Amino acid sequence: MLNLGKMLFEDGVAAHGKGDYATALRLWRPIAEQGNADAQYNLGVMYENGQGVPQDYAAAMSWYRKAAEQDDAYAQTNLGFMYANGRGVPRDYAAAISWYRKAAEQGYAAAQFNLGVMYDKGQGVPQDYVQAHKWWNLAAANGDADAIKSRDIVAKKMTPAQIAEVQKLAREWKPK
């Protein structure tokens, strides 16, 4: 038998999918306040996008942070995005890298892709094509089609020795 929190969460997912944001909010808020990371993440999405609530980046950040601190890779990635783009907080590439890395190390492709972008552009880290290639290669292996294009573009800027190094790094990489 499903527990009440799981039932409320799933009912909220169904309501949200139908665009019934008021019901989703009513169902998710109590379980989010009790510590349900999935509900916390989804409330963050609702506040970030103004779904059934006024758009409020500070509220989105607060809900994302609660879920991210429970190792929710989706919330960690969204926090990284908000820091990288200065949404609701001053732009902070170092904080973006930190949150992206936490999610990327769990094997989450979107975070791996974003981490590759940060290394490619030298945002919050020294520009490093080997690291960019590694993260895009891992994201591609996890199903991110855009990562394949990015990886192949950066590979043209690399030496054969760098390509060999990155292939070794990617083979040895293990999610945490």
Key traits:
176 residues, mainly alpha, 10 helices, elongated, 72% helix
The coarse overall form would be elongated
Question: Regions with pLDDT < 50 over 5+ consecutive residues?
Answer: none
Radius of gyration, CA atoms, in whole angstroms: 18 Å
Strand content: under 5%
First CA to last CA: what distance? 31 Å
Structural class: mainly alpha
Compute the number of helices: 10
For the largest beta-sheet, the strand count, sense and barrel status come to: none
Beta strands, count: 0
Which range best describes the helical content: under 10%, 10-25%, 25-40%, 40-55%, 55-70% or over 70%? over 70%
Report the order of strands and helices.
HHHHHHHHHH
Oligomer: single chain
Query: How would you state the average pLDDT, rounded?
Result: 93
Written account of the structure:
There is one protein chain. This protein has helices at 4-17, 21-33, 37-49, 57-68, 73-85, 93-104, 109-121, 129-141, 145-155, 160-172. The chain is elongated, with a radius of gyration of 18 Å. Helix 3 (37-49) packs antiparallel against helix 4 and helix 5 runs antiparallel to helix 6. It contains ten helices and no strands. The mean pLDDT is 93. By secondary structure, the chain is mainly alpha-helical. Helix content is 72%, strand content 0%.
